[in-house]
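User: Run a structure prediction on this.
Assistant: Running it now.
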Amino acid sequence: MYTPSSVSPADQPGTAGLARAMSPGVVDYLFRQLVAGRPPEDVQWQREGISLAAQPEGAELARRLAETDIDALTPVELFHYVRAAQRLSSWAEDLRQAAVGRYCHPPECQAPAEAARPARHSAS
């Protein structure tokens, strides 16, 4: 005969249940969305400006990522957050590689006009 334990599967050690994956802020948000009859995704931010997925790589994307409270994100928003952070990281890595390449192999500098002229030999 099966006797259920008093501990839920999410509370058992070594399990990664859904309850452990969601912060209290996310649970509260999802509950409010459910009660209001709205979808679980936050679509209001899409109407207010450019989404993280559409934000070009650069300082503005870095600022937005740094200012985001990731504990308040829904799973879908967290997915877009991670993707945007990966794009930013890749962009920054490309900048770093370009700088290292330029440091290791500087472009050939053009000689000043004086050095470009052939040397004159004095007739002594």
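The radius of gyration is 29 Å.
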